[in-house]
């Protein structure tokens, strides 16, 4: 069903055809995780919630795949933090930007940024560098679901805390991000919102979660879990 | 480049949009393999070559993704065995069949089957069951690059030796096939052709290769190799 929906969104011009290929790459990793949030996914999601609560200028950055996969939870996350919501796409055309922004608005987004970019992400070429000053440019903590490696690197270089949601724990985005969440996007968004609710106002817990989190250690555990899952999946098939 | 080519082939109607998603899933596994033929891939490719040389009615079965990814090597494989070449697609329309057959012919294919199906693959619903008697239906050994699990199961149930090329060693196709090659398609086709050349006429070696091959053991080794590759990829990133 998700696949047919994405294919339809390609026809409508909201998703670039190559977005289907990256979705497929994600599916493979989700499959390896048994299509559930593993313990290291939850650890990263809790750290993400802590950073977002601590942020002065948090931003939820939305690309084409993310927008059409789960607009409602992206909007709900931005409202719950609260954070600015900005559309930022790799294959940028004005027409596609307008389609995506209208789509998010039809799903309930208010004050969505991206229509009138007035800044650039440093170190990125082409139109994909375009962003707004009030949103991405001035953000201190930014969550980038399904991001490309270049942009994740550029945002980290700008000194931002970058929270990625990327099913591949070895992708360039995951290697680069400050908090690398390897989980399916909808599950990740819902888990983060649960942690936001749990920790809101509890400054001591927020500080503890941030200081106890090691992204590198957590990614290593994630990869070990994927291997265990692979082997047990194989053994199930033998019966 | 491959991605842009596939996206273009979607626009031309040769590839179904969901074919891009399955390509992406394959890419993820290729990435885990370090984008090279691992030793268990080669073991399966040699077994495939042995079965194809031993076959009475070998068939190379081609779907949309396979056709546009590497038509030349598919044609070369069919000529080298020699085997019949048949187009068989999941999302079948007469228009798409004609586009794919014409595409393969423009790439040099002769006597390609699939235009006028006169048989059905037992146990499959819908038009994707359609095949030719002289090709798929009467085959004893059939190589199916990038196949869906249903069709692989149906072909095995018909008593055929099914050789799959599927990057995911845990897919239903890989679990079902008689010889499961987990490798990128072009590498797999080229390796099989090398083994065909090496073994042609050597009946003793062909028999030995077939009797020494255990698909289940080989898949297990493949999964262990993927895990090793994941861990070493992670450790490289730590430096």
What features would you describe in this structure?
- The structure is a homodimer of 239-residue chains.
- Chain A has 12 helices and 7 strands.
- Chain A is an alpha/beta fold and 239 residues long.
- Chain A has one domain: Rossmann fold.
- In chain A, the strands form 2 sheets. Chain A has a 5-stranded parallel β-sheet, with helices on both faces. A two-stranded antiparallel ribbon of chain A has the order 3-4.
- In chain A, helix 3 (39-54) packs antiparallel against helix 12 (215-238) and helix 5 runs parallel beside helix 10.
- In chain A, 52% of the residues are buried.
Beta-strand portion of chain A reads 5-15%
How many DSSP helices of chain A?
A: 12
Count of folded domains of chain A: 1
* CATH architecture label of chain A: 3-Layer(aba) Sandwich
| Topology-level CATH name of chain A | Rossmann fold
- How much helix, percentage-wise, in residues of chain A? 55-70%
What's the SSE pattern of chain A? Answer: HHHEHHEHEEHEHEHEHHH
Topology:
Two copies of one chain form a homodimer.
Chain A: H1 2-11, H2 17-32, H3 39-54, E1 58-62, H4 64-69, H5 71-80, E2 84-87, H6 94-106, E3 119-120, E4 130-131, H7 133-137, E5 141-145, H8 149-157, E6 161-165, H9 172-176, E7 179-181, H10 185-199, H11 203-212, H12 215-238
Parallel strand pairs in A: 1-2, 1-5, 5-6, 6-7
Antiparallel strand pairs in A: 3-4
Helix pairs in contact in A: 3-10, 3-11, 3-12, 5-10
